[in-house]
């Protein structure tokens, strides 16, 4: 056999578009909550591929589902349907408020479908002037031109020419401003039921409840972007279930496939009829391979012991971070819910989240950031205590070095 062509990090700079600046390590295999790089160096994974690897790496239920489906059928297109897509759609409706499902390949695509449905519904039912979409500053909804415009971070949407219109950004958790601004022109309010990229910001109960009431009052649809919060991440299958507020449309992706690309928009039958034949579509949406894997993930994640386990692991994370902070005061508070957690840096450490990410990497720990001042943790939902303890020991060593 010919020697395999050695690929390393330097090849990235030669062949890849430079919109990413990846770390120097190149992971080659993973098992559970651990990953190994080209030099066989081991890392504990507290990043989970940015809230994607909800069952860790190479979980047997996912591997088996993929292998089984790989021998059967890979792709058809939506000229026909397929069994894995139907089974997965049925399970998503059983585990949520939804009655209807649209499959896509990513969170951005699921959000694109959600926004197009909201606009189409408003136009059909109330007329073309009901088109305003309200979203929130620091929100994140994907990178397509429509979703990035709705997202509330101008740095991501500026510089690409004229933006899709009639999008308003307000302050998250500020109910009075929203109440003042909303009108019969408002078509939809889109929000994360816990802001992820924006710094791990939980909604107040008053706010989330109030948004729902204002949407009802103005005949506007409430869209929850649960791309990051969904599929068990907060300890409920979807975050809205722990908030007691039901949206009209919900987008899901990331953990849905546990690492296999898939997204879905969930909604009610009443709304779904407005996306009639020809109004929207996706070549790969509902792909049998993706749906087979996602079905295995949903079956596993919805087990009560897995969802309860998320709450237990949140406690272990909070305790570990508190112990580190007692020795090296660096964090102001730990925000978030379940295993979508953000440790916010104190005054002295402002702007240094990425330094911690890099220092952790040198100690063999993968973490994330949410902005310049928050270290983000989105590990596997089934990570075991030993891996959490070892990861915390590595994080402590990294922070100790930075303290010196």
Automatic annotation (TrEMBL):
Domain of life: Bacteria
Binding-site residues, pyridoxal 5'-phosphate: 107-108, 140, 225-228, 283
Reactions that this protein is recorded to catalyse: N(2)-acetyl-L-ornithine + 2-oxoglutarate = N-acetyl-L-glutamate 5-semialdehyde + L-glutamate
Annotated GO CC locations: cytoplasm
Pathway: Amino-acid biosynthesis; L-arginine biosynthesis; N(2)-acetyl-L-ornithine from L-glutamate: step 4/4
Cofactor(s) demanded: pyridoxal 5'-phosphate
E.C. code: 2.6.1.11
Cofactor remark: Binds 1 pyridoxal phosphate per subunit.
Residue numbers binding N(2)-acetyl-L-ornithine: 143, 282
Keywords: Amino-acid biosynthesis, Aminotransferase, Arginine biosynthesis, Cytoplasm, Pyridoxal phosphate, Transferase
Alphabetized GO MF terms: identical protein binding; N2-acetyl-L-ornithine:2-oxoglutarate 5-aminotransferase activity; pyridoxal phosphate binding
Localization terms from the record: Cytoplasm
Stored InterPro entries: Ac/SucOrn_transaminase_bac, AcOrn/SuccOrn_fam, Aminotrans_3, Aminotrans_3_PPA_site, Class-III_PLP-dep_AT, PyrdxlP-dep_Trfase, PyrdxlP-dep_Trfase_major, PyrdxlP-dep_Trfase_small
Entry-annotated residues carrying N6-(pyridoxal phosphate)lysine: 254
Biological process annotations from GO: L-arginine biosynthetic process
Other noteworthy facts: May also have succinyldiaminopimelate aminotransferase activity, thus carrying out the corresponding step in lysine biosynthesis.
Database matches in HAMAP family: ArgD_aminotrans_3 (MF_01107)
Record note on quaternary structure: Homodimer.
Similarity comment: family membership: Belongs to the class-III pyridoxal-phosphate-dependent aminotransferase family. ArgD subfamily.
Name under which the protein is recorded: Acetylornithine aminotransferase
Organism whose genome encodes this protein: Photobacterium proteolyticum
Top-level taxonomy: Bacteria, Pseudomonadati, Pseudomonadota, Gammaproteobacteria, Vibrionales
Primary gene name: argD
